Structure formats: structure tokens, C-alpha cells
Amino acid sequence: SSPHTPAVRDSYTLDDTVVVGGRRSEETFRTDRSVSVVDRQNLFDDAPRTTPAALRESTGVFVQETNYGAGSPIVRGMIGPQLLILVDGVRFNNAVYRTGPLQYLNLIDPLSLDRIEVLRGPGSVLYGSDAMGGVIEAFPTAPKDFRDSTGLPATGRALFRYSSADQGLVGSGLANAGAGGSSVLGGVTYKAFEDVSAGRGGGEQPYSGYDNLSATASVAQRFHRWDVKLAYLFSRIPEAGRTDTLFTKKSLQLYDNDDHLVWGRVNVDLLPLNTRAGYTFSWQDFFERKDSIQLDDDFLTRLKTTRDDVTDRTMGHDLHLATHLFKDRLQVQYGLMWYRDWVGSQRRVRDSEESPWKAVPDQSYPEGSTYDNYGGFLLAQGDLVRTAGGHVIRVGGGYRLHAMAGHAPAQSPALPAVNFSHTGNVFQASAQYLFRDALNTAVTFSQGFRAPNLQEAVQLGDTGKFFHVPNDDLAPESSNTLEWLTRVKVGRLTAAGTLYVSFLEDLIKREKSTWQGQSQVDGKDVWRNVNGVDGLLWGAEGSLFADLGHGVSLRGNLAYTWGEEYVPDAPNEPLSRIPPLFGTAFVRYATGGRGWTGFAETGVRAATRQDRLSREDQDDARIPEGGTPGWWTWDLRIGVETDYHFRVSLVAENLLDKLYKYHGSGIYAAGLNVLLTVEAFL
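Predicted structure:
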């Protein structure tokens, strides 16, 4: 059978390998961190529209959607810049990521990926700032190593997909060719979605349609002891509409995003030193345009538009080394990193669609704004006990020294230059007991942090909801997390569970302020960011996989998070955007015959009601008054693959056409949605 054969998938049995948890390849079952994997088979079978949607069934990942062209995972109560996104080890986060939900993970095309890995819990010792609540790492399809190949030195695939709820059309192609240790890969995907229809009674949701063009390319050269790779990722999403205040305030936002990411990597094996070293250089060119539009009573005629253009160009350097000592009983990782952002912006307004654009003097980010993010780390993990009977006692510890510095030139006599910097430390420690491939239990203490970025400290002007003013007296957010995980295999049953508690300090929140002595500008309240919240998060996550034999398997997961903010001299209140209890349950049947294989699976995704709301949640137009109702939805998936390099799948989402949305989302999920995917491959 081909490598695409639908069958029992390793990402559910924890038998595959994972990188993100320890920054090295290790068996998922044996790692001491809470991790999950979405592999290429998942990405075909589930037919996710976006990369955020591909994470909906991962344990402990709740996906909020402000608009249809977005998608912001929530991991253990953390969202947006509190989660670090990596692309093949390169930081995707930049200095202008907004506080709260973000759409930027949708700039990574799931059809360009081999797999997605999620680390739940802090990863700041290994990865630095933003890895406060977790790390999401996307691995683009890598050029194939043709050195041991026979036959045609090329592979490729062409895919077409149709979805009924949004009249969506997706076309994607990828080709890979090479000889010996040399290979080259290129691919392109185009998506076009009309306005999406919600479940029963919801109707068509205006301004929700969007297009997406993305491309990937890479070149690799492999030698005996070293290899080199140059890769490129591009995505463009124009005019993705946000409508959560459309009917209450006749306000519409349209977002354009372009992103170019180039990175090159050299890896070399230093055999006399038992060390593998890698250096990565990256360059990211990020552009965002936001049109904040005031509409007339017909919700079509544009009265006034404020246009904000932001560019962020990021250069990155990352040096990583791994040394193995004492016959692999001790593994030491260490390295250095430095990323610099150059940021600029332009603001213009016009009073109608026929009016000319007029420049606004005060900009969100003055030209010449910069942001530096740098540090070094050391992480060691060793086996204190390793017996012939399969008993292992493993301990680990790590440390990172990290610093950041932000600068924005003065843009008016009323606003001086903004300069801020911070230096800090984070630690990690773990103790683990392993027994063969049957039991893994570990206790981990990990610290996470997120340095304030330029958006929070420097941004000046109308954000659409309020008028934001700078504050250069911001400190990093931080978390201290204690976690206990256990994984068990008994026969064909695999189960995993995690309990965790996180103590939060100096969370960044907004408070009312003034601008040039006024509490409002153009009728909108003036706010600024401050370090104003300490709090607590605790929760539990569990997953189960059972191979019942004869091609039948069961899987499911469940996650719960409780978050509260400490309020001096008053009762504590909930933290914002905390997901309710949520999970999935699916049954799968895999079969095959001469020349073909196939599968069928069905199951539910569900979430309970969330009515524990912070004051910010209560004022959020995306959250219904009194909280978000609970929901469940039923899905069905069928797929067939032949030995003639062809496969087809049919997915029916929300079979009962229920009206529902994930907590905090500004748009309802699709109603009954039938997706047909056809793929041919070599």
C-alpha cells in the first residue's frame, strides 16, 4: 500500500515521534510533556479548511474564530501572542501581534504541511518569549531524500476540494524531484469561499467569504554528515471580513494579510563531539491592512473608512546544538537566538467611497520602530536508572536567559520616543518514570513568559473598538506551571491524562486613559495597556484510543480549564476567554481489498455552556448575553484509496445542521457542510 493508506493512525496511539516537546525527535508516548500531533493522514481525512481548524480535535485545543478568515487556538486558557507559532523551528510570531485572538495561523496552508505538533504548557526555556501557554509547530512538506529511491526520481500530488456550506473551491498542487542527495519541491494552493451558511435558522453570514493564495518551495542538499535546506512559504488573504459589530454599530472591518517567510538551515554532525549542530537564518516580510468602515443604514454604503497599513520585517538567527554523553544516558541541548523586527505603518481616512484618501499624522508605529528579541538556553535530560527489565528514572532541568528591547521614534511633540527593555530568567525541571512502552508518568515544573510587544506598548490610534495610546512601562507576562501527566498502554488500549496548575503574574490588560487631556477621541473611549492582573489557571486533559480489532477503533478526548483573576479586596473574577468543558468522540472502521483500502468514521465534537464571564467577556460583542450556549455536532467521514495513485474522501460536517459557535467566536460555525476531496498522487 502507499504511504497515504487510511488506517489506524499513529497520532492517536502515541506511537509516532514528536519534536516540539523537547526540541528533538522522541517517541510521543515517552516524552515528559503534554503533546499532540496532527499528521498528513489527519489533514486529508478531516479536510480542514484552515490550519486552526485542523487542531479542533487535538486534545486540549479550543479554536476561536472572530471571522471566517481567522482562527485562534486557545490552549490552557492562553490565546494569541501567549502561544508561540513555529514554522519548521522558525518563529512565526512578530512584534505587532495583537493582544487576544489572532488570525495569523490561517496564513499557513494545511495542504502545504506534513504535520502539526502542539505542546500544551510553557515552552519558554526552549523557545523564549510567547511560549507561555504552549507552542504550535507547523512542519511544511519537506523535499524527499532520493538517495535510496528506485524508479522515477519524482513525486507529486494534485488535489481538488468542494465544500457546500460556503460554495468553497480549493485547488492544490505539489511537485518534488531530485537525484541523489539533491531535491527540489514546489507547491501552490488557491481557495475561494463565498459567504458561509450557519446552522438551522442562522442563514448566510454576510462579508464572511474570502480568497486565499499560498505557495511553498524548498531546496535541499544532503551529504554524509551534514545537510542544507532553503525554504519559502507565502500566503495572501485579501479582504477577510469581521462582522461582530456589524448590526449593533454598523461597523465592518476588512483585513488584508500578506506574509513571506524565507529560511535557510545548515545541520552538521560533529561525530568526535557526539554533537549535532544546526544554524537557521530566517527573513519574514509581514503586511497587514485593516479597513475600519462605518456603514449606512443599508449595511452596504460606506460612509467613512479608516485604513491602517502595517509592515513588519523580521530577521532571525538561531543556533541549536545537541550533545549525547555516556552512551546516550545524558542529552544536553543549548543554543542562542536573536530576532529583530523593523516596523512601520501608515494611516489614511476617507469620508466616502468617492472621497480621496487623506493621510493622518499620528501613526500606529512610526517609521524606524524596532524590536529585538534574543537569549540563550541550556537543557539537560539524563537517566538516573535504566534497567534491563525496562525501568527508567529520568530527570531533566533547563534555564534560559532572555532579553528584549523595543524602540519607537517620537511622532509628535505630544508624544515622546518610546523605549523599553527587559531581561529575565526562566527555569524548567522534570522527573519521569518509564516502564517499557506500558507506563509513562512525569511531573514537570515549567516557567513561561511573554515580553510586551510593539503593538501593546507603542500603538497609537483607533483600533476599531477604542482609541489606543502608548505605554512604555510594561513588564513581561509570566506563568509558573506544575504538571503531572500519565500515559498507559494495556493491550490495544492507550490512555493519557494530565493535571496542571498555572500561577499567572503581570498579565497585560487594558485600562481607561486619556489622550491630550481627553477621555474620548471621535466618540471612542481612550484605553492603554497595563500590567494589571495576577491569576490562576488549573485544569485536566485526557485522551483515549482503543483498537477493537477487525479494523474498528475508538478515540476520544476531553479538556477542562478553570481560570480566575485575583482582585484586591474583592471576590476573584473569571479570566477572559476561558473555554468550557469540551471534547470529541469518534469510532472508525478501516478495511481494504485487492488494490484498495478505505475507512469510515463518525463522531461528535461538543462543548458545554460557558457562563463564567469576565467583565471584558460581558462587553465582548462576540459573546452572547449571559454566555455561550453549549452545543454538540455530528460528523461523518468516508475515504477510499486505490493502488493507482488516487484517493477520494467525503466529509459531512454538522449532519443535524445545528446552529452553534465556539465560545468567543464572532461567527457561527458552518451548518450542514458536505466536502468532497479528490487527490491524485505519484
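Summary: Residues 544 and 664 are 27 Å apart (CA to CA).
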